[in-house]
Amino acid sequence: MEKDKNLAVLIDGDNIPSKYIKEMMLEIAKYGNPTVKRIYGDWTKPHLNKWKSVLLEHAINPIQQYSYTTGKNATDSAMIIDAMDILYSGQVDGFCIASSDSDFTRLATRIRETGLTVIGIGEKKTPDPFIVACDRFIYLEILHTDEEDEKATKKKKQVDNINPKLIRLIRQSVTDLADDDGWAFLGEVGALIQKKRPSFDARNYGFSKLTPLIQSTGQFEVDQRDGGGRYKLIYIRCKE
């Protein structure tokens, strides 16, 4: 069995709402073991009060960073300094940076230059430079569960977001990996799409998995092949 990656989870408390914490930590657990969990902010400020009630529940260590100057974000600087200290300690295999702030773009790039994985988590307002600097970027909005009727409404809106640009991305990725008959293994297609667009996630479009998203477009043939045992290998091919 492959060993879980040790992850450092660094949260920008000024930038991430506390309502997302439960779903966010469950999502992070899919990618590794969060051995370092820290949240940064000026805890003397009232806007962080909601965070205080959930920190113990998730064993997150609050790091105090005073706002020395109005208009300057000292929290970002503290996160970056700590991230570099953790990086050079050699104790983790990757980082999860939770923020919607583009100021962490260079940090994500620097960490990836060492060969470590960077997972970004933030709201949909996150600027593109930070998103593409990560190996994978996850939108908080797709993790947060609301009431069933609201969830159904959101899901419909997300399905409507499947557009020609997304179809072209999928088709090109299939073409890049296709064999002589045009078939490509869906797992490899998904990985390639993720490299091309780190924020890609089937859940952004209202689907739990990539396969039903692909099928919903009507643009691809889908073939399930015996992978041995209980597993099926899914291959797809572009329709003419």
Sequence-ordered SSE layout with sheet pairings:
Layout: E1 6-12, H1 21-29, E2 33-41, H2 49-55, E3 61-64, H3 74-89, E4 94-98, H4 105-113, E5 117-122, H5 128-133, E6 136-139, H6 148-159, H7 164-177, E7 184-185, H8 186-196, H9 210-217, E8 220-226, E9 232-238
Helix pairs in contact: 7-8
What's the gist of this structure?
The chain has helices at 21-29, 49-55, 74-89, 105-113, 128-133, 148-159, 164-177, 186-196, 210-217; strands spanning 6-12, 33-41, 61-64, 94-98, 117-122, 136-139, 184-185, 220-226, 232-238. It has 240 residues and is of the alpha/beta class. Residues 152-160 have low confidence and may be disordered.
Major sheet details? 6 strands, parallel
The CATH superfamily of the largest domain turns out to be 5'-nuclease
CATH class of the largest domain: Alpha Beta
* Sheet/helix structural class: alpha/beta
- What's the number of domains? 2
Q: Remind me, CATH topology of the largest domain? A: Rossmann fold
Q: What overall geometry do the principal axes of the alpha carbons give?
A: elongated
Widest beta sheet: strand line-up:
3-2-1-4-5-6
